[in-house]
Structures are given as C-alpha cells and as structure tokens.
C-alpha cells in the first residue's frame, strides 16, 4: 500500500492524445492503438512503474468483463473470473514480451481462467442435486392438500356419527377453538357437561377413526 | 470478498520490477545445455557402451538415436514455446515427425532382432544399471524443466507437462542408447519406450499438481 500512486502517467508518446484520452477500453479507437498502448503500459509495469500498471489494469478490466460475460451468465462468476485473470496477469507478467502484441497474451490467460471456472462450476454441479417440487412436498402446505382433504372428509364423517350434544361440543371447542367459557355461553350447556361431552366425543372419534385406519 | 477495483489497487501497490523471461528458444537452448552437461557427466562416470562405434555403423541404430535426440530437442523447444501465453498450441506438434521416426525405428529393431536373438535377448543384469541412468538423467532434467517452466502452472499445465515429459523421455532414451547395450528386442521396448511412456504419462497426469507446487504465488497470499 506504501507505493500506491493514484496519479496516472502522462499520455504515451506512441499513442495519439485523442485516442489515449478515453479511459474505458470500449470507447477507445481502433483495436491496434489499444494494443500498442497496453503493450507499452505493461512494459513500463514490468520495470516497476506502478502508475502505468494501475492504468493498464483499470483499462483491461472492462475489456475482460466483456470477454468473460460471453462465457459466464452469473454476474458473480464473471467478477470472480475477472479477478482470477487479473491475479494471473500479475503472477506471470514476466512472460510478456513487449516485442509481441499484448492482446493475444491477455486473451490466452483470460480464456484459460474462464475455462477453469466453467470446469469448477460443472464439478460443483455434478456433486449437487437441484431442488425439485418433490423435495418441497413436506414443506409446502399446498402440496399436502390432497392428503388433508381426504383426512378432513373422514373426520367430518366421524363427527356426523356423534350424538348432537357431542357434535356441538367438538365443533365449538375443537373446530372453532373456543374456550370452555365461550363454548358454554354459545351453546347454553354447562362447563361440566361440555367437558363430559367432549371427552366422550373424542373417545368415540378415536374409536371410529382408529377402526377406519385399521381397515385401511 | 474483495471488489475488483480494490484488487486492482492492491495489485498495483504490490508491484515490484520484474525481469522479462528470455525468448523461449534461448531458454530451450539453456535447458538443452543442461541436458548435454548431464549426458557428458554420465559419459565420464559410466563410460559409453563398449560396442558404440561398432553400433554406429548400423544405420537403423543411428537413425533411432538421432530421432530420439531430435525428438528431445524439438519437444524442449515446443514445451518452452507453449508455456508462453498467446503462442500457438500447434507448437506442440513440432516433435511429432521425429517422434514417429523414433518409434518406428525402435519397432523395426524389435521386429528384426527378435528373430536373430530370440527371448534370450533379455538381460536382467543390465537392468539395474539402466535404472540408474534413467534416474540420473531423468530426475535433474525434469527438475530443471519444472523450475524453468513454473509460470506455465497457471496456463497449460497438462500440455506443458506432456511435451516437457516427452523432451525428458527422449533425452533419457538417447542416454540409454549411448551407455547401455540395449538393442536386445524386448529390452528396447521395456526401457526405451516403457520409460518414455512412463515419464510422459507422469508429466501429463501430474503436470497440474507438480506445477502448482512451483507456481508463482498470488500477491494476496504474500507475494
């Protein structure tokens, strides 16, 4: 961090001022000017010019992002791959020969890193099982609808088989979830008789539904 | 997770001047010089095979050895070429013609001499000395190539491992022909081609892993 000059070096002599003024690679002039420009910047970076290197990396980043997005669709993958490429460029910058064009050198590295990430993604996918609606059956209430319906039908049938007093007690206390006091007020029955009716109703329902599941 | 602009700043602030690699041809020549040195030292310590001059009259033997040597030289050039980003992958085909000549002369020798020598051609006493030659040639040359091509770890580890392995294997086979009486049918196959195939296979299969040990470190992990 100690040697992080934020100022950029003056425009390079080989590149016309009009062309080197634009910062973004996509808005630059013809490709060959970019290439010569980047080539010189890399040559200066190799001899330790941090300003030239910063400018080079800033200029190739949008270019690399465009290159990588043609191969990856996930934005996170694109950014990770661009960072991989930048790290590789940094690690093997000794291999660049300024006598040769810069772009093929960069593209070779970019292509390799993009392919590496595609392979890694494929490997990860091969170990993972994507979630399908079947996996959601237990979690999703809607997918349990059929089962609920059939259970409900059986319960309603069993409730109909109860005596009117028991049916009323079950409806108020269990289905409408009233308290004993509320149920007593609503039905006009005493709390004690409600309790007895509920107890008998539950015992009878258990017997009815138990017989049904035993038959099944 | 670091953002890309932050990464760019970190990389630029960690910049140290670096020395450019010499052209691939010059580097291949350096490696071949090391190979010549190793072969020279072996010749001094082990001595060439006693019947070398007699064998040099045999055109098949000369062609086989020359093809092996040329395969070694061309494979070394190809390995150094394809280790540089942006160079055509077609360079890896450079040693193909001499490799074909080498393999076919070895095959021809096997075919003709099997008839004259028969299975008695197998001599196990020689085998241990052959093994020593293989190790003494193959190991330093592989190590030298590994160190010289460490930057390829990030690029084409398998291809470079394969072609580099072929260079080492071909030079080792040349050494075997120079120092050992191995023209006896099965032994040629077992030693020349067996060792070559083993080295090439090791280079191809383990290239990625071996290169990752010597790969240049990322600046984010303490360059």
Helix content of chain A: 55-70%
* Overall pLDDT metric of chain B: 78
Shape of chain A: rod-shaped
What is the oligomeric state here? heterodimer
Strand content of chain B: under 5%
Shape of chain B: elongated
Structural class of chain B: mainly alpha
Give me the strand/helix succession of chain A.
Answer: HHHHHHHHH
Radius of gyration of chain A: 38 Å
Mean pLDDT of chain A: 77
CATH architecture of the largest domain in chain A: Orthogonal Bundle
Main sheet attributes: strand count, strand direction, barrel closure of chain B: none
Task: Quickly count the domains of chain A.
Answer: 2
CATH class of the largest domain in chain A: Mainly Alpha
Which spans of chain B have pLDDT < 50 for at least 5 consecutive residues? none
Write a brief structural summary.
Chain A has nine helices and no strands.
Describe this protein's structure.
The complex is a heterodimer of chains A (216) and B (223). With 216 residues, chain A is mostly helical. Chain A is built from 9 helices and no strands. Chain A has helices spanning 17-20, 31-46, 50-69, 75-91, 102-127, 145-160, 164-175, 180-187, 191-215. In chain A, helix 6 packs across helix 9 (191-215) and helix 7 crosses helix 8 (180-187). The longest helix of chain A is centred in the middle third of the chain and has 26 residues, at 102-127. The relative contact order of chain A is 0.06. The model of chain B has no long low-confidence stretch (mean pLDDT 78). In chain B, helix 2 packs antiparallel against helix 6 (125-148). Chain B has one domain (52-215). Chain B has 223 residues and is mainly alpha-helical. The radius of gyration of chain B is 20 Å and the shape is elongated. In chain B, 71% of the residues lie in helices and 0% in strands. Chains A and B meet through helix 3, helix 4 and helix 5 of A and helix 1 of B.
């Amino acid at each position: 961090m100690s040697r992080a000059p934020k100022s950029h070096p003056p425009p390079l002599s080989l590149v016309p001022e009009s062309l080197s003024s634009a910062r973004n690679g996509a808005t630059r002039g013809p490709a060959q000017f970019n290439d010569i420009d980047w080539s010189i910047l890399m040559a200066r970076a190799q001899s330790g010019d941090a300003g030239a290197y910063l400018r080079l990396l800033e200029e190739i980043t949008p270019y690399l992002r465009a290159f990588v997005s043609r191969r990856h669709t996930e934005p996170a993958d694109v950014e990770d791959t661009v960072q991989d490429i930048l790290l590789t460029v940094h690690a093997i910058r000794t291999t660049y020969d300024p006598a040769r064009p810069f772009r093929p050198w960069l593209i070779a590295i970019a292509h390799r890193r993009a392919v590496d990430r595609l392979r890694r993604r494929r490997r990860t996918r091969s170990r993972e099982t994507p979630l399908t609606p079947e996996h959601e059956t237990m979690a999703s209430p809607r997918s349990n609808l059929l089962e609920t319906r059939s259970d409900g039908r059986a319960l309603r049938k069993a409730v109909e088989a109860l005596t009117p007093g028991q049916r009323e007690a079950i409806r108020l206390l269990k289905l409408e979830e009233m308290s004993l006091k509320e149920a007593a007020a609503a039905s006009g029955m005493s709390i004690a008789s409600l309790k007895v009716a509920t107890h008998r109703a539950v015992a009878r329902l258990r017997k009815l539904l138990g017989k049904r599941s035993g038959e099944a | 997770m670091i953002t890309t602009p932050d990464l760019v700043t970190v990389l630029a602030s960690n910049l140290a001047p670096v020395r450019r690699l010499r052209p691939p041809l010059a580097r291949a020549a350096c490696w071949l010089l090391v190979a010549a040195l190793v072969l020279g030292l072996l010749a001094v310590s082990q001595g060439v095979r006693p019947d070398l001059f007699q064998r040099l009259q045999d055109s098949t033997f000369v062609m086989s050895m020359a093809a092996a040597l040329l395969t070694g030289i061309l494979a070394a050039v190809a390995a150094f070429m394809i280790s540089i980003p942006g160079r055509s992958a077609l360079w890896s085909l450079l040693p193909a013609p001499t490799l074909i000549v080498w393999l076919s002369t070895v095959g021809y020798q096997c075919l003709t001499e099997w008839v004259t020598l028969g299975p008695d051609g197998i001599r196990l006493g020689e085998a241990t000395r052959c093994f020593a030659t293989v190790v003494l040639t193959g190991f330093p040359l592989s190590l030298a190539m590994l160190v010289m091509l460490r930057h390829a770890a990030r690029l084409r580890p398998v291809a470079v491992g394969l072609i580099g392995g072929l260079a080492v294997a071909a030079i080792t086979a040349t050494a075997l022909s120079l120092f050992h009486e191995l023209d006896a049918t099965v032994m040629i196959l077992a030693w020349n081609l067996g060792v070559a195939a083993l080295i090439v296979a090791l280079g191809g299969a383990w290239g990625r892993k071996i290169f990752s040990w010597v790969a240049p470190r990322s600046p984010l992990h303490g360059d």
